[in-house]
Fold:
Amino acid sequence: MEGSGTTKFVGAIDEGTSSARFIIYRAGSDVPICSHQLDVKSFYPKEGWVEQDPIEIYEVVKKCIDVTMDEFQKKGKKLKDLVAVGITNQRESSVVWDRDTGKPLYNAIIWLDNRTSVTVDQLVASIPNNSKNIEYLKPLCGLPLSPYFSALKLRWLRDNVDSVRKAMHEGNAMFGTIYTWLIYNLTGGARNGGLHLTDVTNASRTMLMNIETLQWDRHLLDFFGLPNSILPDIVSSSELYGYVKETKIEGVPITADLGDQQAALVGQQCLQRGQAKATYGTGCFLLYNTGPSVVHSTHGLLTTVGYQLGHNATPMYALEGSVAIAGVALKWLRENLGLFGSITQVEPMASMVDNSLDVYFVPAFSGLYAPYWNQEARGIICGLSEDTTSEHVVRATLESICFQVRDILESMRKDCGIPLTKLMVDGGMTINNLFLQLQSDLVGINVIKSKLPETTALGAALAAYKAVEPSFKIETELSKGVTRKTYTPTINDNERDVRYAKWKMAVERAIGWDAAVPPRSDYFE
Structure:
């Protein structure tokens, strides 16, 4: 079939935190044909600050596209065989640029960045009745006040960068997450009518979109002191937006956009209410499909848009739990502590010991996300003894990610009332079989590994194809009969719960690390 002249293909731009890539799939399938991936540099101007150069991001994406197309054409394929392109991206990361020149007014502030902690404190202090409730805006946007989200980054830019403040005042500033920045440039930029768009999944991560109406909300804009003029138009996740005007895919329609975690939800085919997936990358992100219902969490989770596959399609929602530090904790062990030289050594090292010897590592390098939402928490390693080795610390690091996933699954159970019986998983860390077994052991349910380690690009490609082939049904036509590896629990409930109780004790200490007596939060009751 691949050699047939009638075969169609779909491309996916996947712009993540640490790298960007372009992948071409056979249309309507999870079969990749060719791809190219390049790293994206991050900068750390101060402690807790994380930035990237928006121009470099775009140049890296263009390079990935062009190299992949060269390989595509070497396989005998033509540009006309590529019927659509989708985009998926790191979500809350924010760019502001000049409307006239198209040039960035500051580096992209990345989702991990924690500089807006003071901004959060100032906004919390302004909440009526002095309630200091970080969930004050959740009924409108589904999100708590946190440095994580785009509105806080925008407010910081307004308050601290003269060129941004001036451009906002003059109506000359344009804002977007990374998708908006990419489609603006791919469709012409300032010189050639570049589109200023965002889809509902990315917009739902800004704290500026009403989670019910899926429109920008005046009350939210007023609360953050931001002008409406900076905002892109909100569109669905799967429709014709425009055509590429640069690179070797010039003329190809761009027909899908999903934030990376929502793209993984689609790529994992978690399209029914009650299905959930976890993606392990720089951070770890769990999404639980709640269908067309907006479920407001009372246990520390986020309400977000899962996807909207068509302009007139019913939007589907999700509950999300976000773990800031997952794979990056292993990077820290390698680069800061020198415990190993290559990430491929992690599984063999952790397998050299039968357990973590009661070592618990809470990697709260920039605070804790769901379900704690404590920006003052800091990393801590508990339970060290003279018998502790580097292997125990590496294994404890893997377990720390598993425990954080259990934290989120516990909250999902409380919010939805139905415990999960299985968890679909993907992401770079899923190549580690010991890690997935630990995950199954520590949450007590089956963990099912995706056929492909990365499903974000696949989700974008499937949504892009659906826009040009409306009869395509993602959930019924994708790789029928594929067998996925399943990991089942090997420890009993008592051992699992004892270890989880010790984990929560370690979290209490991470939250109260600078206090004589660690404070107890409501979550631990």
User: Anything to note?
Assistant: The longest helix spans residues 390-416.
